[in-house]
Amino acid sequence: MTTPATLPALSAYALSLGDDALILGQRLAEWITRAPQIEEDVAIGNIALDLLGQARVLLTYAGEAEGAGRDEDDLAYLRDDRDFRNVHLVEIPNGDFAVTMARLLAFSAYQHELYQALLGSGDATLAGLAGKAVKEVTYHRDHATQWVLRLGDGTATSHDRMQAGLERVWPYVDELFDADPAAAALPGVAADPATLRPPWDRYVDQVLQQVTLHRPEPAWHARGGRTGLHSEHLGHLLAEMQHLHRSHPGVTW
Amino acid sequence: MTALILPTVAAARAAAGAVPDPEIPVLTLDDLGVLRDVRVAADGTVEVDITPTYTGCPATAVIAADVRAAVEAAGARRVEVRTVLSPAWTTDWMSDDGRRKLREYGIAPPGPARTRGPVPLTLTARCPRCGSADTREVSRFGSTPCKALWACRSCAEPFDSFKAI
Q1: Mutating which of B34, B54, B143, B162 best tests the A interface, going by the most A Cβ atoms within 10 A?
Q2: Is the minimum CB–CB distance between B3 and chain A shorter than 8 Å?
Q3: Structural domain span for residue A48
Q4: Are the Cβ atoms of A129 and B55 closer than 8 angstroms?
Q5: Residue A129: which CATH number?
Q6: Residue A197 located in a structural domain
Q7: Is A211 domain-assigned?
Q8: Domains of chain B from N-terminus onward
Q9: Is residue A10 a part of any domain in this protein?
C-alpha cells in the first residue's frame, strides 16, 4: 500500500482536500435523525452530500494522478487510517450541536477561502471543482453562521454552550493553515494554506463579535493529520464507513 | 459490415435534451441547462457532455444512464456520457419554459444567481400556488440539494423553492 509520503504531489494534494471533505461528510451524516429539528436533519444531510460530492471528484482525481489504478472507492474504503491525509478538525466526534456548528463555521469558512483561491488554479480539474464547490460551501458557511449567531445571541445557556463549542474546536484550527509539502510542490496549482488565514480570520472574527463570543486562545494545537498521524477517533469512523465494502468486496445495490 | 444510418448531432441532441430530470420530472435536461455538448465522432460514437447541478447530486448517475438509453434509442451504436464541472452550472441556465413548468408543478423557480458575496437571504420566493409574495423560508435546505423549503403566509401551503446558485 502506498503511503502518503511516496504519493506524487498532485495526488497527495487532491487526497488532502478530498479526505477532509469525505471525513466531515461522514461525521455530519451521523446527525441525521438526531438533529434538534427535522429541518436541521435535512440541512446537515444536504451539507454532508455536497461534501461527499466534492470528495468523489477529488478522490477520483487523486487516483488518476497516482496512476496505480485506484479509483474513488479503493481510496475511500480500502485505506487504513495512517494513509488518510485529513486534518484532525474533521475527525473529532460531533459532540454537542454547538460543537458541530463551531466546527462547520471554522471548516466552511476555510473551504470558502480555499476554493476561492483554487478558482485561479492552473489545474483544470481543481479549478473546475472549485467553481462548483465555492457556491456550495457559501451555503454551508452561511448556515453555520446563522446557528452561531442564534446560539450566541440566545439565552445565557445557549451562549455558554456556543462558547464551549468554540473552545472545543479551536485547538484544531491552526492545522488547516499549516504549510503542506504537497501544496508547496505545486506552484500555480495548489493554494498556499497560510494565505487563506487572513480572510478566514476576518470572516470568523466578525461573526463572533456580533454576538459577544470570544475567539478562544488554545494552549495547544493539533498537528500531523496531513502526514497520516490521527487520533483514535478516525479509526472508529473508518470502521463504520468501510465495514460494508470490506466485508462484501464489490457488492452493489 | 452493414452501413447503418447514424443519428445526426441534431437528432442525438434532441434525444438527450428531452430526457426528464429523475427528481423533478416536469423538467427536461434542456430546461435545466445541464446538457452542455453533443458530438458525433468519426466512428459514430455519440459523445454527450453533462454538468451536475451539485457535485454530490445523486441524480447525476441516473441522468447519465437515461441519456445513454435515449441516444441509443435514437439510433446511436455507442454513447459516451462525460461529466464536466466547468463552467459551473448556474440556475441562470434554466430556460424560461422550464421556469414556467416548475411554477405549474408547485416549485418556485430560482431568481437570478449571485456569483459573489453572501448568499441572499431575504429575497422572497413567490408562492407557486396562490402567487403571494408574503412567504417565509422554513429551511435553507430541502428534499433535494437544489431546493429550499418555504411556506406561504397567504394560503398557508408549504412549497419547495429552487435555490438560485
Answers
A1: B54
A2: no
A3: 4-247
A4: yes
A5: 1.20.1260.10
A6: yes
A7: yes
A8: 9-83 (3.30.300.130), 94-162 (no CATH)
A9: yes
- Selecting from B52, B55, B141 the residue whose C-beta is nearest the C-beta of A46 gives B141
Residue A237 near residue A27 (C-beta atoms within 8 A): yes
Q: How close is the nearest chain A Cα to the Cα of B165, in Å?
A: 7
Across the interface, whether the CB atoms of A57 and B55 are under 8 A apart is answered yes
Domain contains A83: yes
Read off the amino acid at residue B48: V
The predicted-structure confidence for A197-222, as pLDDT tens digits, reads as follows: 999 999 999 999 999 999 999 999 99
B78 to chain A, minimum CA–CA distance in Å?
24
Paired with B81 in beta bridges are B48
Reported as a pLDDT band with limits 50, 70 and 90, residue A2 is: very low
This prediction has a pTM of 0.91
H helices present in chain A, as ranges: 9-29, 38-66, 72-77, 97-118, 124-152, 156-169, 181-184, 197-210, 232-247
The complex scores an ipTM of 0.82
Distance from CA of B3 to the nearest CA of A (A): 37
How far apart (Å, rounded) are the C-alpha atoms in residues A98 and A39?
Answer: 16
